[in-house]
Amino acid sequence: MANRTDLTLTGRDGVLFEATSWLPDTEPTLIVQMMHGASEHLERYARAAIALTEAGFGVYAHDHRGHGRTADRHGEHGIARPGGWAAMLDDASVVSDRIRTDHPESEIVLFGHSMGSFVAQGYIERWGNDLSGVILSGSSRGLEGSDELLPLLDSMADADPDAPSDLFAAMFAGFNEPFTSDNTNGFEWLSCDTDEVRNYIDDPWCGTPLSNGFVADMLRGMVDAWDDEAEAKIPKNVPVLVMSGMQDPVGGFGESVSALATNFAVLGVERVTANLYPDGRHEMLNEINRDEVVTDLISWLSGVSN
Fold it and tell me: What is the DSSP letter of 104?
């Protein structure tokens, strides 16, 4: 049985943000801290959280600034104000601190999907030694053309920081171009499961435009996380799981996400696992083979907690 509790936490800058925990009836030895992607929210991970809870793990998740219940609280969807990307990283560490307060004997594994995986990449360079594992879902390493994009994004952010980012909207549209044969709504790149895609489209907290300021700040944070000096700070003894669909455009249809896993190994990370699913798209937890994906996830977590 999953025991759910909704939480309001306080960021290091005093800004309130929303979170949720799912816990089994007995004290878990391991808790998964989940971070959602861009233009979505934590509730979309409830099904996976319940499955993990039924396997004996705990789950904590939070809505990033500008997303979900946190954005509703502040009345600003798609705007990570105040503090931007740096504050989002700090919020993630606040959640970890709350887990340690609530469950001092439990190990923590950080799970980040898509944008959340980029937050996670920055997190492990700062606080990775306090984790028992890291899971990166729908992720990648590197963004083609980022050197040219950053000055353009910065100029747009300077001119109108709160306006919806046309470049971000174009990126989402570009992700769907390879799926034009079944392109009826622009989000087929998310999953082969048409019902799950429809759920995303019908969800008022999904597909929200991100502001110029948010997107510029996010890309700079990603590029900073991929810096050689920053990556050298990644702990070598913390296991890493990279999970992705091979048809995911964010992961370069396998190329960039494979490079991400290889890079961890090159950096000296002792245990790197790549679960790559041939027909999967971006959201493996919402794919048609999601039961297989969750089973694989539980198996990996069980190995970490032993």
Answer: T
